[in-house]
Structure formats: structure tokens, C-alpha cells
Amino acid sequence: MSNQYQRLAKLCLLMVISSILITACSQQVVQTTHFSSQIPSDCRVVQHVFGKTCVPLDPQRIIALDPIFTLDPLIALGVEPIGFASYNGSGEEVLLGVSFDEVEGAKNVGDAGQPSFEKILVLKPDLILTTDYGDDEQKYKLLSKIAPTVSVPNESHLSPEDYENKPWFKENLRFVAKVLGQEAKSEEVLRQYQNRIEALKNRLGNQLHQIEVSVIFYGEGYIWTISKGNYPVSFILDDVGLRYKSVPYGEWNLSIETISEYDSDILFIVDVDKRGASFYLQHPLFRDLEVVKNNRAYVVSQENWRSGGISGANKTLNDLFKYLPEDE
Which of 127, 132, 224, 292 could cross-link 297 (Cys pair, CB 3.0–4.6 Å)? Predict the structure, then answer.
């Protein structure tokens, strides 16, 4: 009997959600996939991978469905979303580049890959920011029935050449700022970032041209490092003018035998599995490295170093300010 009640409850819930979606669809001023030539005067037209969207001029109830490409730039622009998605694949909620303290008061609507449409509906957003990795058109169509939805470009949309040479975390900020009509604010944020880069150069002085940096990620059953462009840290190190060890595009994974090749002047170990500093500094893979013996190996968080947005880039810079300069 209880199973019959459960099936009946699920059926009722499905009917309610379908009714709300149909109502939202009928109330939508402009369809994003079938853009009308009649453009309302109280919206901003944004072109993206799925077409055009009529975005409210001053959206107040924004949901960000990707921590890196939508939530990170919102926080950098000083915009407080009402909802956000996290990465939940490891069994815990994870944000990259943004802390949970920075979204206090906002509702978590589930995993970025499969957010809860029920939770999104309840929040009554007036703008949804999502991103696309090549298979999200159906999700986009459903979201656009709830509220105006913009698909924010990500690094997968770039050619390998652009991927390695264009600091895409800066362009990501500019795109989201354009959606919101906050282009001037984005340029201010980028100027502040550049000022911090110059300040770090000055702090390093002669050390700038004397040290080489390595970055190793450890976790999820893999050990890997950076290539040019695959994390903002490579662009940050380029901006500072530091030498760093890297691998060709797509060859990120390292073997146990090659760890010694990353015995540089300074080593950052990104603690993906959250094991703590003592685990790595006493680990047979690392403890015999000269950089560890010289106390220039530092364990840092994936939230700051595995990010892809300007907020995360600034948190990476925080660590560089903390660990790179050495009293001469």
C-alpha cells in the first residue's frame, strides 16, 4: 500500500511541475530559441551558443548553475545570486574559486551537471546563468521555460591555440558583466587584479628571475600538473613573469617515476583529496625532493587552485603573496 502512495505522490508532483513549466513558458516574454523580432524595450539582448536571450535590464533573482563560469564572476562583480549549483560528484558539495561563506543565504539547487528543476522553480528566478559542454541543449530549453537563460561560454569552446594563449578567466568575467550591463565593473575588477600582479612583482624583486615553480595536483586517483592554459594559475604565473614547469596540452597526468622532474625551487601541492599537509610532506613520493627538504613545498587547497574564474585567480594570488617572497 505504501508503494502505491509513493507512486501517487510522485505522479502528483510531476503534474505540478509540468503545470508550472507550462505557465512559465506561456508567461515568458521572449523565447530564447525562437527569438522574436519584436524586442521589448525593457531587456538587454544577449547572443550565446543557443541563440539570443532577452535579459532583464536589472535582474534581481539570479541563479548560477556552474561554480566556475557563472557563480565565480557574479561574486567578483559583487552580485549576490539567490541560487547556485555545486559540484557533487565526490559525494560532497564543492565550490571552486568561491567559498560557501560568499554565497551564504543563497539556495543550493543541486549538482551543476544535474540541478534540481523543482528547487529552481521555487526560487522564481528572473535570470538563469548556465554553461554548455556540448550536450546541454535539452537542459537549456527546459531552463529557458522557467526564466530567461544565458549559456556562458567555457574553455571547451576554445580552439587549442586560444585555450593556451587567451586568459579565458578574464573573458569569462567580461561576458557575464556584459550580460548584466556591468562592463565598467568588470574592467575595474581586472585592473585591481593587474595591480596585484604588479605588487607581487615588486615584492619578489630579484627573486622573480631566479626561481622556478612547479604545481602538482594530487587526488581522485591521479597525479597531474598544469599545461599552459588549463588552469588560471598558468596565466597568473605568466602575468607575474615566473618560470614554471608545464606539460603539453592534454598530457597532464604524471607517473610516479616523473615526480622527481618537478623538484623545482618552489612546489605547490594541490590537496584535492583534503588529506592535509603532513600526508604529502611525509609521503615517499615527495619527502625526498630537495624542495621539500628546503621547506619550500606548500600544500594548498583545490578550491583556490583548481578554479577557473577571476575570484579563484585572486585567491591563488593570495597564496602566491603568502608563499613566494623570501627574505633575502
Answer: 292
Residues of the chain with pLDDT under 50: 1-39
How many CB atoms lie under 10 A from the CB of residue 180? 24
Whether the CB-CB separation of 152 and 48 falls below 8 Å is answered with yes
Fold of the domain built from segment(s) 21-185:
Rossmann fold (3.40.50)
Q: Judging by DSSP bridges, how do beta strands 222-225 and 83-86 pair with one another?
A: unpaired
Identify the CATH class of 195-323: alpha beta
CA-CA distance, 185 to 38, in Å (whole number)?
30
Q: How many residues does the chain have?
A: 328
Q: Do the bridges between strand 62-64 and strand 83-86 make them parallel or antiparallel, or are there none, so unpaired?
A: parallel
Read off the C-alpha cell for 27.
508567461
| Residue written as grid cell 565565480 | 72
d(CA 184, CA 181): 8
The domain locations on the chain are: 21-185, 195-323
What pLDDT score was predicted for residue 36?
35
User: Do 21-185 and 195-323 come out as alike in CATH topology?
Assistant: yes
